[in-house]
Amino acid sequence: MTVHTTETPEITTTECRACGAQVSGLNGRYACGVCGWVNAWSEGHSALPTAAQDPDYPDPATGAGTA
Ligand SMILES: [Zn+2]
After folding, report:
1. Is the pLDDT of residue 63 over 70?
2. Confidence (pTM)
3. Cα–Cα distance between 9 and 29 in angstroms, integer?
4. Distance, CA 18 to ligand 1 centroid (Å)?
5. pLDDT band at 58 (very low <50, low <70, confident <90, very high)
6. How distant, in Å, are the alpha carbons of 33, 43, 62, 64, 66 from that of 47?
7. Strand partners for 24
């Protein structure tokens, strides 16, 4: 399955607010590999996909995903 997107993730770099290491991320979202610091999801440059956009999201209309 191929995921089509109109946005290319942008590689961004910042300084870890916890330990000062340089960390790279995508679209303003960072996870420090040195100390484990992560920034808030809301600081990202683009909107996150919603649960309903997940291909595995159970469709309430069809009842798929229910036992
Ligand atoms: Zn760090």
Report:
1. no
2. 0.57
3. 11
4. 5
5. confident
6. 24, 10, 27, 27, 29
7. 13
Question: How far is ligand 1, taken at its centre, from the CA of residue 39, in Å?
Answer: 10
The sign one gets for the Cα dihedral 8, 25, 29, 12 is negative
* 13 and 31 Cβ atoms separated by less than 8 Å: no
Going from the Cα of 26 to the center of ligand 1, the distance in angstroms, rounded, reads 16
Two structure tokens written together for 17: 């607010």
Q: For the chain, give the number of residues.
A: 67
- Cα dihedral value 42, 47, 52, 54, nearest 10: -100
Q: List, in sequence order, every beta strand (DSSP E) within 1-67.
A: 11-15, 22-26
Q: Is residue 6 predicted with pLDDT exceeding 70?
A: no
